[in-house]
Amino acid sequence: MKTYLTFLARCFRLSFVGDRRYYAWMFFLTVLTLLGINAYCKQLVHGLATTGMTDQVSWGFYIANFTFLVGMAAAAVMLVIPVYIYRNRELHDLVIFGELFAVAAIIMAMLFVTVDLGRPDRFHHLLLRFNFPISMLTWDVLVLNGYLLLNLHICGYLIYCAYRRRQPSKVFYIPFVFVAIAWAISIHTVTAFLYSGLGGRPFWNSAVVAPRFLASAFAAGPAFLILSLSVLARYTTYRVPEQAFLTLRNIVTIALSINMFLLGSEAFTEFYTDSAHGASARYLFLGLHGHNALVPWIWTAIGLNTVALILLFMPVSRKRSVLQAACIMLIVGIWIEKGMGMIVPAFVPSPLGEIVEYLPTWNETLVTVGIWAGGLLIYTILVRVTVPVLTGRLTYDQDFSAATGAPAELVTNHP
User: Fold this and answer.
1) Half-sphere exposure of 58 toward its Cβ, with a 13 Å CA cutoff?
2) In angstroms, rounded to a whole number, what is the distance separating the alpha carbons of residues 100 and 260?
3) pLDDT tens sequence across 303-337
4) What sections of 117-237 are H helices per DSSP?
5) Can you tell me the distance from the alpha carbon of 239 to that of 228, in angstroms, rounded to the nearest whole number?
6) pLDDT digits over 21-63, tens only?
7) Distance CA 92, CA 311 (A)
8) Are residues 318 and 373 in the same domain?
9) How many CB atoms are located within 10 Å of the residue 375 CB?
10) pTM of the full structure
11) Which of 102, 197, 241, 346 could cysteine-pair with 73, CB 3.0–4.6 Å?
12) 298: CATH
């Protein structure tokens, strides 16, 4: 227990140590997080009137980001499968970075649900009226918290074993890894069912919502891992194998292709049949009765995803800079498509035929930016602690100064 507490204390102290770039990045994220907290305090005082949501459009920017982040968290399994199913040992340590990002993404997702509550002080009413197993919302709460605990256990145990310089016992993490694979698929499937099960919103009443969610998740999540691993390879001593980038590139290419195909299939069904339920799709893609606030959003998303897919299919995407550009484009494209392009159109027009458009307010945007900054702050700290442990610079029998690079006399050593 003493060694474990020393490990936690060292990790805490290590999160405050870095070079100028690290301090600048952490300062930038901290400022954005504080701005988001200030904006949320205003929302607590004045209510959801500070947002662009109305009685007609009751889910907006917050739930759009929640949906996107649940998929990003589920995508951690895309590194787990090559390692533990196909036994690619070269990528073994990289699984930890995927699991760490899943932890940060789930925390951000749950924060977005929290800020979306008009009266968070009454959240316990949901627990008092626990409609299990009928309510999809109850299932969503269970699977998200369960996935968070699974990832905390897996990466926490593996990092601590590396810190102690001992081989991890397979009994304590392999079963949890395979449970996490199924759980990762379930968290996004349940989230999709939460939408498609609402009969009053015909835009979501489609059997391909869950497959679309998974395909987009398995494209955007690994794309973010490519970007984060690129930063690790360039600015740290951690050696990222080239095979990792090639494997993730293949996963992203296949997943994005499937996502684009499913989007095209759904668009064909909505427009070719020309049913009354296609009003939301027409509003999203073409505009409806002069209302077209979301048209630029969705066509920007389609354009970015198309260009990214073309680049990924070309051999030039093996070049790191091109691959990074494609990943940035598809992340932004999927964020738009899955967020503003999936959530908001279901409310326009309303079941009564009202057309009330939605755009996020400045205060709503600040809260969103603050949550994203807070999540990236958590992920940065987790990676900052993990890299010295995996490279052997921070172990239980070494001076703390060896992990920080600081002179020994400036650091108080732990026994």
Assistant:
1) 7
2) 28
3) 999 999 999 999 998 898 999 999 999 999 999 99
4) 124-128, 136-164, 174-196, 209-235
5) 13
6) 889 999 999 999 999 999 999 999 998 999 989 888 888 899 9
7) 28
8) no
9) 24
10) 0.89
11) 102
12) 1.20.1630
Tracing tokens 């494609």 back to the chain, one arrives at 326
**Residues in the chain, how many?**
415
Residue type, position 70, single letter:
V
| Structure-block tokens of residue 171 | 């009994």
The three-point CA angle 299-305-310 to 5° equals 125
332 and 275 assigned to the same domain: yes
- Structure tokens belonging to residue 334: 């999927």
Q: How many CB atoms lie within 10 A of CB 241?
A: 15
Buried b (16+ CB within 10 A) or exposed e, 221-237: bbbbbbebbbebbeeee
Q: Are residues 39 and 165 in the same domain?
A: no
Closest-CA residue to 70 (of 189, 204, 188, 209): 188
Residue type, 140: D
Domain coverage including residue 16: 1-51+361-415
CA angle in degrees (0–180, nearest 5) for 387-246-226: 45
Number of helices and strands (H, E) in the chain?
15, 0
**CB-based contact 52:60 (threshold 8 Å):** yes
